[in-house]
Amino acid sequence: MSDLLPSWRTNRKQSSALARRQTTAVQVLVRRHRRLPLPRVPLPPLSLARRFLKLGGITFGLLGAGGLVGLCLWTSVVLILRPHPPRWLVQAMPYLVNNWSDQPIQSWDEIKAELQTQGSTARDLIGLDDLGKDPKLNDLKLLPVVGQRSSCTRNCEAIVELRLYRVLDRNKQELLSLQLLDQLVIQGPPEEHVVDPVWQGNVGMVGSTHPLPLLNVKSIHKQGLPGIWLTLTGRWQNQGSPILYGQVLHVDLQTLRINSLLNWASATGRLPIWQDLDSEDLPELVVSQSVGLEPHFSSYSVANTTAAVAVRLQEISLRKLPFPEASLETQYHNALFLAQHGLWSDAQERLTQLKTQLAESWPQELEQQMQLIALHARVSQSQADRTWSRADQKLLALLLNGQWETALETMGTSQSFFEAVVLPLLQQDSSRLWQRVTASLQVEPTEKATRLWGALLRLAKEDKEAALKWLIQNQSTIAKQEFEALMDKVQPEPEEEELLDTTVADAAGTIPVTTEPEPRSEKQPSSSGLPEVGGLFGTARPLESVSPATWRWPSGTPDMTLSTGQQWYRITLQAGHIGRQWDQLAIPDGSSPEAIAAFWRSLGFNTNPALYLASAASNQTPQTVRVRAIRLSAGTIELLATGTSPPATDIQIVTTPNQWVMPQQVSAQPLSQIYRDQPQLGERLLTTLSNQLGVDPTLLSSAFQEKSAAVGTVVTVRRVDFTGDQESELLLTIDAQSWPYEEISLPTQGTIQIVLNSQGEILYSSLREGGVLVGWLAPDTSAPALVTNQGGSYDLRVWSQQQQQFR
Fold first, then answer.
1. In this structure, are residues 450 and 440 in contact, taking their beta carbons and an 8 Å threshold?
2. Could you tell me how far CA 129 lies from the centroid of its own chain?
3. Residues 6+ apart with CB under 8 A from 134
4. Is 806 exposed, middle or buried (0-12, 13-18, 19+ CB in 10 A)?
5. How far is it, in rounded angstroms, from Cα 634 to Cα 622?
6. Nearest 5 degrees, angle CA 139-CA 141-CA 146?
7. Count of CB atoms within 10 A of residue 618's CB?
8. Which residue, among 652, 630, 641, has the nearest Cα to 566 in the 3D structure?
9. What are phi and psi of 437, to 5 degrees?
10. CB 4 within 8 A of CB 12
11. pTM of this prediction exceeds 0.70
């Protein structure tokens, strides 16, 4: 072991020495390599695009960092100076920043004081939570602001601004603080925009550009529509019945903004209503602009209901739309052409046929257009089917609906009817009838009845020669022959005309009197045996002056004396009560003094020449007028009477004394009382009322129960025997002006009247018929006849036992 140890040590020393030598060699090599230059490997050059991308990335990075720093600084400054968000943020995210706004929080008293300093007045707040079930509505209030209109002398107050507020705090239903969300400056529609759509083509009815005032806020909201829908309303009146006009507003619950969408006007006094015309998606807004027998409706669809785009109303027009089938496009254009010229029923029939042919390919845009035409057609057809008290109204309704054959049959071949009814009608309404005739002939050139009416229009405006020339130019040989045959029957030869004209001399001079013979009947015999007339109905207008030579005076000597405070009236008789029914009075045969005296006696004027002059206004008492003279001309019977000066110069109603009854003269029961005392009858009345108003019966019932006290004065029931069956019918009256239910919109702002029997069947409705019931005539021997007012014209509606309706 000891021998081995020295050798191990010797080996270890040798290994260490060798290692030191190797390390020294490596270090020497490293030093040498450090002294040598390293070879440089060239880098590939960057492309131009990569250089730009690199530079752009650096630039955008610096800009982003700078923008972020600037945004933080701006936010810090804003939060320090104004610890509320801007309004656009409130409107974009209203419920995330419920108490954070740039508008100050004000009390109700502070808001009213602020408006007073601006010369305005705050009306009562309108709660939007009553108009829908959306929880967003719970704390929203609408404030109408009333101010004085400039350049105004009377009735100068109008709504000048609408404000939308959020209620922030409540304490026992009392408003503590309000926060303004949006405000809309209100300007009424120009007068020309209100007058022109209603009185189209009426010379002298030209509106100015002066804005009309908007006075009231009405709800036209319907469940299922986006947001809340309101309308501001006003009334314009120059002559005749007033025109209701307004502006449609939409409250957007996403952005909490008030938007003005549409100006509208309605001569029938009806608010815009929602109707589902195409049975797709949302209903359409329909505005009635009908005047008289001329139906006119404007319809609008709701467009852009997404949160990103404001809601707007898009009009459904009668312009040509792309048609899916090229081979049927001409038929579509013809139907549209007829509708544009007022021939609604014909246009609807043609479009219905096209829809059947296309089946599933029928687009929604065409469906909306067809349903708008169908709406007009229903009104036009119902007027043509209705039984009118005046023959000229019936004939005009048929012609306006394009029922040429039926109109010819109605006209008949009576000379007196042709001269007294047909010719004056064609002369007065030649413009709108001519456009219908020419439009119908353009689509159907071979229609013989249409050409005959075209010739009759030429005859009425010019003469027989012009009518024949027009037929020859249009190569209507058959129509020419029938026209000549018709003229032979309705127009006598000149020699016969001379025999029909007589002159009667009296103290006023020589008065030409033209008589038109009527066909004799048992009901209207000749002048030798005229039946007694038990009642009269007509209308009267005040006269400023009278020409005695144009009137027939029973005494033979004109009596032109007028007492102080009296004036002349011209009365036009429309109907008389003979036996047990109302009918038109036939003009007596002959024009001798004896015949006129006999007719005068049959009217009862020889013993009592007095009539009632009644006004449609409930606060005016009928006055008695004295009939002084008579005039028979152009198929009409006119009376000259004297009476006291009227409070107004509008048309008055003329009746036989003690036969005129107004609704206000009959005691009324509140609907709530009937609902309580007679539940079954109350349920029937409630169902009828809900159907007429287009309201859910459950909603109407709950609304009545909540405000039962208001129902007593707003919805009333009167019992009157309107049909002569010894059982009372029910006259249901709604005072729309005092309607207390904001969540239920009425189709009109005027009074609504519905006559129905005890079973709930409707016999008359002012909403359906279009007229307003102002009263009724009640002779002792028959059922009362209703007197309605439509557009300033009074009509008599008589109960028909056979048809079970008022005609």
1. yes
2. 27
3. 253
4. buried
5. 29
6. 165
7. 12
8. 641
9. -65, -50
10. no
11. no
Burial pattern 317-342, b for ≥16 Cβ within 10 A else e, equals eeeeeebeeeeeeebbebbbbbbebb
Closest by Cα among 53, 102, 99 to 79:
102
Per-residue confidence (pLDDT) for residue 58, from 0 to 100: 81
- Mean pLDDT by runs of 10 across the 807 residues of the chain is 52 58 56 56 63 76 82 69 53 50 77 90 86 78 88 76 85 69 90 68 52 88 87 75 85 89 85 84 88 88 70 89 87 93 94 89 89 92 79 88 90 77 84 90 88 89 84 75 76 40 32 31 41 84 85 81 86 84 76 80 85 75 87 82 74 85 85 79 79 71 66 80 82 80 71 80 77 83 81 78 68
Sheet holding 785-790, edge to edge: 660-661, 772-777, 785-790, 793-797
Cβ burial 262-271 (10 Å sphere, 16+ → b, else e): bbbbbbbbbb
State how far the alpha carbon of 400 is from the alpha carbons of 409, 450, 495, in Å: 15, 12, 36
Q: What angle do CA 421, 423, 425 make, to 5 degrees?
A: 65
User: Do 626 and 643 meet the contact criterion of CB atoms below 8 Å apart?
Assistant: yes
User: In the structure, how many helices (H) and strands (E) does the chain have?
Assistant: 23, 34
Q: DSSP readout, 79-139? A: HHH--S--HHHHHHSTTTSTT--SSPEE-HHHHHHHHHHTT-EE---EEGGGS---GGGTT
Distances in Å between the Cα of 508 and the Cα atoms of 504, 505, 561, 605 are 10, 8, 15, 21
Distance CA 550, CA 455 (A): 33
C-alpha distances in Å from residue 732, one per residue of 467, 715, 728, 758, 795: 52, 7, 13, 12, 20
CA 447 to each of CA 18, 397, 398, 475, 780: distance values in angstroms, whole numbers, following the listed order? 134, 19, 16, 12, 50
For the beta carbon of residue 65, count every other beta carbon within 10 angstroms: 10
Beta-carbon neighbour count of residue 615 at 10 Å?
A: 19
